[in-house]
Structures are given as structure tokens and as C-alpha cells.
Amino acid sequence: MQELIDRFISYVTIDTQSDPNSSSTPSTAKQWNLANKLVEELKNMGMQEVTIDDNAYVMASLPSNVPQEVPVIGFIAHFDTTPDFSGTNVKPQLIPNYDGEDIVLNAAQGIVLSPDYFEDLKQYKGQTLITTDGTTLLGADDKAGITEIMIAMEYLIAHPEIKHGKIRVGFTPDEEIGRGAHKFDVEKFGAAWAYTMDGSQLGELEYENFNAAGAEISIQGKSVHPGYAKGKMVNAIGVAQELMSLLPATEVPERTADRAGFFHVYRFDGKIENAQLELIIRDHDRAKFEDRKALLTRIAKDLNEKYGDCITLQIKDQYYNMKEKVTPVFHIVKLAKEAMEQLGITPIIKPIRGGTDGSQLSFMGLPCPNIFAGGHNFHGKYEYVPVESMQKAVEVIVKICELTADKND
């Protein structure tokens, strides 16, 4: 446990926040600090084929120790943290033998992590938690996943009696800004399939995610003196309000769950002469996803006819539901499920209400379900991770490697 804690803390205290406004890869120079550290650690532990490319993608191999032919499998995690909340000067707090009560993260600022609000805390009574100090995020998303992969590889190297095929590991930048897989060299990685260690609570196993698109809308108005505006003024703010009112009122993030899709307007800036909106479109069902894009297009067309071609709409697909690519090779999900069950972990199989590098990688030719890394409350000051969940994730990685070899014996 202590080795896992020490390694995790050494990673989260390195600031690796990504930047959506940067066009470089990685989007921030500071991501190189952890990427280069990982390269050195991989070499020192005895991993082979350790590489880092010009975009900071790190890859390495653990050679097979069995004579039979076994599929090459991989494990992937990202080292950037979200731009949504500060990742600078992270000061993790260790809470051994958690008593099930409120955890004071920062007394001076009155920041408390409470099971009354975050009910998942209750299931970790008696365990060791790692939390923030209330001023930054923690970075368990996804430095917990990196830690687990590294510890699992060390364990397999130290225990050659555990039979396994060739294992590939990969660590990526910029996942939090949707670009983690963009420059991932699937052919170089050379795995038949892989798993991202990027889920949340113990037992999560995910192979479905949203189909996703982003939309940018620009509305050009006409400003006229309000006293003489009848029949002449086109108020871009009013057109924007009308457009939003034509979207289904109940199909928004705050009123949907499970597989239900939504429209989400996340930015608005407007004056009479000009208004801009940005929104995202999400749905697990591909046909419904296409219907959503068609609805938005139709609304814009109707308003253009009403107000005189004042709206410019751009819709861009972002990623698709990896279920489409994973279902034909569903044995890879069954394998992870069996690994958990053999370890006494109850699999929690549910759709992701978001995206993952695994969805993009699946469409790039690398089927890639997502496995829990153990953390909770990602992207904010209430983030925490139970160390025991991280230990279980390590065991799952090792068991998957073992089962892959067993099933090809």
C-alpha cells in the first residue's frame, strides 16, 4: 500500500493541466515533466521498448513469458488534468482508517467533504482515503490509472510465475480537452485490444459512451433606435432566446440520466447586433443523435426564413459510441468482468455519460473498454480516492493479463 501511495503522490504533485486554447501537443509544456518521469521509471523497472514521441505519447512493453501465442493487450491512462479547476501546488491529504464522518479539507476556508452530500463516502469507512486540501483538484483522474498500471507492471516483473502474453502500456496527454487519442499511434502500439484505466468507483466497467457533437451558432442582428424599430430591428439576443426555446426543455443535462441524450448550451454572449452560442449534443443512440443534429439544423433554417438569413450554424462531430466497435469483440468485456468476479469485485456495467479516449481509440482500430481507477468527484476540490480501490485496480490488471494467457494456452 505504501508504495502505491508514494507513487501516486509523486504524480499528483506534478502540475499537468491541459489547455483547450493551445494548438500544440501536448497543449501545455508542463505535461512533459510527468511524461519524462514515466519514461525513466519504466526503464528503471525493466520494461522494454520504452518510447516517447514528439507529442509526449509514452509507450512501453512487458514481453511475454509463455511459449504459446497470446494476443497482445494494452493498458492506457492519461497524465493531463482538467483545465476546469486548478492543478497547481496539489497538496494531498492522507486519511487512514476513515471514520465515516465529515472530512475537513481546509479549515481556514471552511471546506468540508461530507458523506451527507457525497454519499459514496459511506462505503469507504475504515479505508485509507487520499483527498485534496480544498484548494485544488487531486488528479486521480487519471494519475490513479497511471499509478495502477505502473504498479501492476512492477508486480508482474517481480513475479514471473504469473504467466502472461506481451503487454503494452500507453500514457497520453490532453485527454481532458478531448485530444488524448488524436495522435495516438495505434499501429505502433500493436495491441489487439486495450483497456483505459480511467473509470471512477470500484467495479466500474464501461463499453458504451455518448455519440457527441459540438455546435457553434452566430446570429447577426440589426440595431435600430427602439422607438422606431417596428419591422426593422432584428435583436440577436431575442433570436437566440427563441432558438433555445425551440429545443426540448426536458432534454438538458440537469434533467436526464442513464442513456437519455441532451442538448447543452454552455456559452452565450450577446448584444443586439450579434450573439454567439456554443452547445454540445449528446446521445447514446446513433439514430437519435442524428435526429438531434437534424432538429438543430431545422430550427436554424426556420429562424433564418423568419428573420432573413441571420443565423450561421456549424455542427462538428466529436466522437461516437464505442459500443459499435466493442460489441463485435465482446469477449474483451467478458474477460474484464471475469477478472473482477474472480477477485470478489462486483462489476458495475453502465454507459458513460461522457466520452473517453477509449471511444476514439475503438474507432481507430483499437477496441478499448474502460475500467475503474477508483477516484470520486473528479475535476474539483472534493476529489478523493480510496487506496484500497487502487489496490483492487492493480489486481484487476494483473488478473486480466493472467486470464488472457490462460484462455490461449
Tell me about this structure.
The protein has helices at residues 2-12, 31-45, 140-158, 186-189, 236-245, 286-307, 323-326, 331-342, 357-363, 387-406, and strands spanning 48-52, 58-62, 73-78, 93-95, 103-106, 111-113, 129-131, 167-172, 193-199, 204-206, 211-220, 262-270, 274-283, 311-319, 348-349, 370-372, 384-386. By secondary structure, it is an alpha+beta fold. An eight-stranded mixed beta sheet has the order 1-2-8-3-9-16-10-15, covered by helices on one side. The protein is globular and about 85 Å long.
Provide the residue-averaged pLDDT.
95
Indicate the overall shape: globular
Determine the structural class based on helices, strands and strand pairing: alpha+beta
State the order of secondary-structure elements, H for helix, E for strand.
Answer: HHEEEEEEEHEHEEEHEEHEHHEHEEH
Rg estimate, integer Å: 24 Å
Strand order of the largest sheet: 1-2-8-3-9-16-10-15
Question: So how many helices?
Answer: 10
Strand content: 15-25%
Q: What is the count of β-strands?
A: 17
Helix content: 25-40%
Query: Would you identify the regions where 5 or more consecutive residues have pLDDT less than 50?
Result: none
Annotate the secondary structure layout.
Layout: H1 2-12, H2 31-45, E1 48-52, E2 58-62, E3 73-78, E4 93-95, E5 103-106, E6 111-113, E7 129-131, H3 140-158, E8 167-172, H4 186-189, E9 193-199, E10 204-206, E11 211-220, H5 236-245, E12 262-270, E13 274-283, H6 286-307, E14 311-319, H7 323-326, H8 331-342, E15 348-349, H9 357-363, E16 370-372, E17 384-386, H10 387-406
Parallel strand pairs: 3-8, 3-9, 9-16, 10-15
Antiparallel strand pairs: 1-2, 2-8, 4-7, 5-6, 7-17, 10-16, 11-13, 11-14, 12-13
